[in-house]
């Protein structure tokens, strides 16, 4: 029931009437009618305009009832003294009517009063909230969490893109901190998950069908074993919709991106013979990086640059050009870009700064306009350029980079780009690409995802971003790409609160970061918490084989490491294989001293010779019930670091030849020699870290997160 169909014409009628009256929210009775049209369960109710009617209607419903003011001018009814709960008989209903009307007039003398709503009171159940909101980047989102008066205090709410599927809704029920409460605690009965899922799906479809519903709250939704019923409905409208974002066709994106990233010919606009100039650095990198395509320097006066014939304009170049790298002042960019458009160049790499980042929005919009007019894709402006190693292409002013590998990285910031280059060089991490996105006037993260999705040279995609221009487009592409290749995202600006001033509960609890976190998870993306973590995951995830199951075993020579590694497994969502089956436990015990400990972690103790590590690790790789190994090495004279490292590589390779491949990571505790050992292990397919029990487990955890999201486990 992913695509539920509601009665659209009924809702359209109500919204049109509200628009004609110039209002921006629904009254409670209108909210009920909208819910009825989409099969969203709400209590019996009616609106009365006299105290006598209140007594009659309440009696026909059965007591107790709740009574509430109905006024388009009073949004927060409780504050106005406009809500009385637990009305027990007809006389009380009459009195309650009079009190509510008097309070409302006192609260806002000129408020338009429609009447008083009399509503069947829900008996018991767990209070939850189901809502929806509109986010600038992701569009329509549906929310679920613990409801009632504590919603803004606890902020225990989770979000998904709308419309949501039943699977999305199920993951929302499990995705809040109080998930156990829904399953029934301290003798309480579990709530109906089906009824909650149903309501989430229907609300998400309603707001997707009607973009003008900007915010919606059902709070509280009383969930019980019999169903879910929304006691209060609040709907906020916005009839001034932003125009939909421009989104180019995916096939066209890939065609352009292939020409930009794998060009047969590159023009350098602003090429220079003068050392220290950006145009000189770009030329040097293209030549020294080993690029085999045509290089065309563009300079108004010089006949040749660095021994290569120069042209006054790209229009003077005889052949076809795929990419143009700009190394000229900001004020000259628009004119040169037009010439690139006339030359039918696919992409412009805009190194110059002095656009949106300095407040020159108009200048940047002019470039976007030219880009659209001539169908030329823009990378930047305000970037360091990019590398694509399979083509030996260093279209950047940073130093040339030549360690080829299967990880593609991108950054929105130049400084972070330099850190990526430095880390890659220092750790000998092979990359397929490093790309600067800068101001993202055009090309952004989802354009890169589309290119790397079909790029056989790329196995892992890692992206640093400060914002997502079109979060919905990114999420939709990432959901597909992450099924094939791990996508790692470092989202900067985690602590900025997004929607504190929103009119609804759902909006008020929606910290921007919480939305990013939930939507990225929904899209199968691995989220890195720090720059270092993004880099380590980029390096480690591609070399680990995909696990075939959830059972992880720790083999350690140091008890202390074993405890920390166990903690790290919990932090990274890894399942330690416990209890270890008796026969496997006995098999491990054969190799370890009597004062060691089998179970999990398997503690072989510190003074053991290399053969103990070899035997226990071989057993861990051999037994099909074990799916991944975490090794904790302790530096001793008996088993020096490089002896341990070479033995581990040997046993892993020996088992690989027998068809037994499993992810293995290692933590090395010891003196400085463990650094060389860790590097040797890494170069031979075992992500290993000196002085850290957290990093190896984070890398393994990321591989598992990806495998689960891609449906491989």
UniProtKB/TrEMBL annotation:
Domain of life: Bacteria
InterPro entries according to UniProt: ATP-grasp (IPR011761), ATP_grasp_subdomain_1 (IPR013815), CoA-bd (IPR003781), Ligase_CoA_dom (IPR043938), NAD(P)-bd_dom_sf (IPR036291), Succ_CoA_lig_flav_dom (IPR032875), Succinyl-CoA_synth-like (IPR016102)
Residue intervals of the ATP-grasp domain: 32-68
GO molecular function, one term: ligase activity
SMART domains per the UniProt record, alphabetical: CoA_binding
Pfam families: ATP-grasp_5, CoA_binding_2, Ligase_CoA_2, Succ_CoA_lig
Alphabetic keyword roster: ATP-binding, Ligase, Nucleotide-binding
Residues spanning the signal sequence: none
Name by which UniProt lists this protein: Acetate--CoA ligase family protein
Organism: Ramlibacter pallidus
